[in-house]
Design a protein that fits this description.
By secondary structure, the chain is an alpha+beta fold. Helices cover 25% and strands 8% of the residues.
């Protein structure tokens, strides 16, 4: 199983197996990196422009795998735990620790001493700890931890409290709001 630089597990054997697509891939199979950021790598951009910006890794019969692309990046878009499915619940103006944390699947290559591709998924705090502290895997058939469910439900209750509507009459019931009241 792949390891972090500190030697803990990342929960997968091959980080490229869990990705859906590159962040720079357009819906029609073109490379957005070459089109928008080509000035950072002119040779790469020139090659892609010569091939009408076609992504050689997106085509199942293409000449590249995702790992061959020098500018590949994949970050999970859905705000839910990739392992147990619990969804993020953030309360505005609340400093509580998030339920979900970013989990990096790719780290610098020890041989090349350079950054590898950015492959990031979301894990709830509880699955994240299990991945790093044990033999748990990202692709395990896992249910949310009871503590995760309780934390999510607590936040859901706060959301409902914030969304509830209370009329002024209900808020000030029994209080004298009129200065002339009681005169």
């Amino acid at each position: 199983m792949e390891k972090t630089p500190q030697g803990t597990s990342v929960g997968v054997d091959d980080p490229y197996e869990v990705i859906e697509r590159c962040d720079y891939l357009t819906d029609d199979g073109r490379c957005r990196y070459a089109a928008e950021h080509g000035h950072h790598d002119p040779e790469f951009a020139r090659e892609r422009h010569e091939d009408d910006l076609r992504c050689p890794a997106a085509d199942p019969e293409g000449e590249w795998d995702w790992s061959d692309c020098p500018h590949f990046r994949a970050r999970q878009r859905a705000k839910e735990c990739i392992r147990c499915g619990i969804a993020e619940r953030r309360i505005a103006h609340d400093d509580d620790r998030p339920l979900l944390e970013e989990h990096h699947l790719e780290y610098p290559d020890d041989d090349r001493r350079e950054l590898a591709h950015e492959i990031t998924v979301y894990l709830c705090r509880w699955c994240h700890a299990k991945i790093h502290n044990s033999w748990a895997r990202i692709d395990d058939d896992a249910s949310p931890d009871p503590e995760a469910i309780a934390a999510a439900e607590g936040r859901r209750s706060k959301e409902h409290e914030e969304l509830s509507f209370e009329t002024a009459a209900e808020r000030f019931d029994g209080e004298d709001t009129d200065e002339t009241a009681g005169e």
